[in-house]
């Protein structure tokens, strides 16, 4: 046991043992004084203000008379007392237009009024320099993490009425009683806000109908997801920027391939090249970069990225830049490390490319989302049949009770793309897999073939190779646009592009 003093000091206070904070009144007065006025840049109206108002209006019409609570989420601890860089919940970003690291603990509330809802954005505004927070709070203080906006600033930026976070609890409680205003909160966004909402909507006479509340919240999550299925013009523009930045990042990877091939952890060279680019050109990567050489490419989410990048093998790179508004690209290219595909690599690559092309053919208004996958699978199954790998015909394999071809492509062909790399994930099946495609939808087309090094069902020459080609697709009025078309896909184009970059 320690001495009496350390036993009495709460564990949560022990972090202060590494330094001593000045506490005298004289110091407090001194640090609060002598700062120039108006040092902060003037706030600028955000580019998405008109669009977010339309999105909130659509949500409002789905839940008349109800109070809707959409938290940004809290800071998340990485270890001990250090946090991850903050990223707001995507539903919050979608409805406020806020991106990058804005704003930890903020909560958007749609308060019901006679003709819809009034939106109010509750957040922790900048604390004065005469507060302890200013210099002593390492999580929120201006001296530690920088100045936050004022209430007036964020109102200009978002076009939404703002209020201090400490008014949230009373605002949520208003008229919430028996038969009063129903509350819904986005599940999983902020446990403290969810607990507050749960306390308010449970009561001695109302009881705690946890299941009904969970259902109500799930319906809100579902609606928020479905609201994002068709992108507006601002979102499409953001996705274009994300894809363009991603295309530039792939070119940097190729330029760095010789260094990767010479490094004992060449996959990390690729990852670091792309991730550095993403931080320079956007907010970050939209998901952990997959840099998978040789057999590692058969692990679908290989993000350890600590392997060698051997000449003669393929390296699969799945990476996306997330721009400051938090829209992300999701692109995969499978590259021959030394710039030329071998015959067997080209054969597998071409099968995957043909599957992707078949999927592009059907991805147009009027088709169903599931048809895109089906078109890709037709090609994959028939190639596997040609190569003698299926235990049956391609036709039998494609039947629901067959599906043997999926041994070599266990993932789906497409997913919606937007603020989340797997966007709209809470949408109902009839709105997603079974939905009819509409202009403005953006999703990936990403067939692949993965032959593990120990897969005895395929000849030796195929083993230890994974190929995926992933593009980002916008459904247009009369077909589709491949947003990532600037990145070569055909094997001969990939080789020519690499040759040009490698000199
Ligand atoms: N990068 C994850 C995916 O392609 O779905
Ligand atoms: Mn994807
Ligand atoms: Mn991907």
Automatic annotation (TrEMBL):
Domain of life of the source: Bacteria
Keywords noted in UniProt: Aminopeptidase, Hydrolase, Manganese, Metal-binding, Protease
Coiled coil: none
CC terms in the record's Gene Ontology section: cytosol
E.C. no: 3.4.11.9
Family matches, as PROSITE patterns: PROLINE_PEPTIDASE (PS00491)
GO molecular function, one term: metalloaminopeptidase activity
Protein's GO biological process: proteolysis
Necessary cofactors: Mn(2+)
SUPFAM superfamilies according to UniProt: Creatinase/aminopeptidase, Creatinase/prolidase N-terminal domain
Family that this chain belongs to: Belongs to the peptidase M24B family.
The protein's name in its UniProt record: Xaa-Pro aminopeptidase
Organism (species): Cellulomonas bogoriensis 69B4 = DSM 16987
Higher taxonomy: Bacteria, Bacillati, Actinomycetota, Actinomycetes, Micrococcales
């Amino acid at each position: 046991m320690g001495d009496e003093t350390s036993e009495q000091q709460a564990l949560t206070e022990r972090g202060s043992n590494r330094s001593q904070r000045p506490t005298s009144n004289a110091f407090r007065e001194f640090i609060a004084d002598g700062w120039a006025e108006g040092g902060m840049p003037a706030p600028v109206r955000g580019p998405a203000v008109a669009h977010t108002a339309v999105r909130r209006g659509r949500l409002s019409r789905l839940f008349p008379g109800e109070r809707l609570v959409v938290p940004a989420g809290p800071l998340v601890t990485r270890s001990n007392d250090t946090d991850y860089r903050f990223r707001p919940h995507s539903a919050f970003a979608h409805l406020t237009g806020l991106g990058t690291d804005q704003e930890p603990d903020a909560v958007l509330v749609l308060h019901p009024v006679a003709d819809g809802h009034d939106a109010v954005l509750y957040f922790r505004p900048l604390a004065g320099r005469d507060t302890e927070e200013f210099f002593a709070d390492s999580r929120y203080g201006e001296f530690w993490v920088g100045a936050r906006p004022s209430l007036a600033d964020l109102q200009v930026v978002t076009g939404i009425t703002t209020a201090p976070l400490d008014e949230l609890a009373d605002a949520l409680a208003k008229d919430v009683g028996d038969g009063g205003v129903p509350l819904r909160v986005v599940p999983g966004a902020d446990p403290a806000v969810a607990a507050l909402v749960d306390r308010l909507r449970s009561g001695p006479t109302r009881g705690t109908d946890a299941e009904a509340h969970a259902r109500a919240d799930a319906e809100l999550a579902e609606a928020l997801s479905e609201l994002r299925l068709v992108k507006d013009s601002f979102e499409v523009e953001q996705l274009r920027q994300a894809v363009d930045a991603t295309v530039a990042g792939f070119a940097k990877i190729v330029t760095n391939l010789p260094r990767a091939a010479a490094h004992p952890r060449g996959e990390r060279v690729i990852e670091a090249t792309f991730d550095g680019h993403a931080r320079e050109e956007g907010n970050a990567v939209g998901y952990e970069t997959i840099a998978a050489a040789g057999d590692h490419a058969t692990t679908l989410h290989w993000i350890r990225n600590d392997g060698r990048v051997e000449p003669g093998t393929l390296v699969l790179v799945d990476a996306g830049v997330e721009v400051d508004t938090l829209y992300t690209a999701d692109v995969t290219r499978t590259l021959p490390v030394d710039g030329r595909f071998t015959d067997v690599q080209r054969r597998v690559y071409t099968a995957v490319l043909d599957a992707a092309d078949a999927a592009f053919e059907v991805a147009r208004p009027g088709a169903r989302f599931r048809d895109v996958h089906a078109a890709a699978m037709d090609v994959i199954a028939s190639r596997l049949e040609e190569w003698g790998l299926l235990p049956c015909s391609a036709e039998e394999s494609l039947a629901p009770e067959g599906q043997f071809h999926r041994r070599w492509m266990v993932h789906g062909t497409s997913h919606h793309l937007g603020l989340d790399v797997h966007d709209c994930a809470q949408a109902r099946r009839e709105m997603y897999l079974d939905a009819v495609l509409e202009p403005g939808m953006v999703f990936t087309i990403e067939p692949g073939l993965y032959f593990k090094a120990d897969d005895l069902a395929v000849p030796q020459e195929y083993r230890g190779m994974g190929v995926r080609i992933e593009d980002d697709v916008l459904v247009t009025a009369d077909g589709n646009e491949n947003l990532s078309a600037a990145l070569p896909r055909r094997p001969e184009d990939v080789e020519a592009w690499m040759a040009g970059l490698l000199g």
